[in-house]
Amino acid sequence: MVLLLSLFGCREKGVSIYPVEGEVVWNDGRPAQKLVRGTVSLRGGHGINPNAKIQSDGTFKLHTRGLGEGVPAGEYSAVVMPPETFMHTPQQSLIDPRYKSHKTSGLKVVVEPGENYVKLEVKRPGAHRN
What we know:
Blueprint: E1 10-12, E2 15-17, E3 20-26, E4 39-44, E5 51-53, E6 59-61, E7 63-64, E8 68-69, E9 74-81, E10 107-111, E11 116-122
Parallel strand pairs: 3-11
Antiparallel strand pairs: 1-2, 3-6, 4-5, 4-9, 7-8, 9-10
């Protein structure tokens, strides 16, 4: 599920980037608070891979390395990675493992010129797949 709002953008290093905020929610609509310190990462056709840390309320704000806060306009696939343990390995049991791969997550983000809001809906492990 993706929801977008557009208002304005900023320009750095010749690439226009636009603010992207959002939230990760469980498929029942509740914020995915257990994913705090996890990561949302995008992959698109620009060769640019924006990412964000998930906050305690399930929200995130995407940034692009070398460009700052924001993301170039375009279509992206998204992954949601659970937080890492003290051994620096993802806690896979918190989220269905399909969300860790761009090929299987099914999560899409469209960034348009202006401000953008994205809602990413994920399932816990073992949840019935649609």
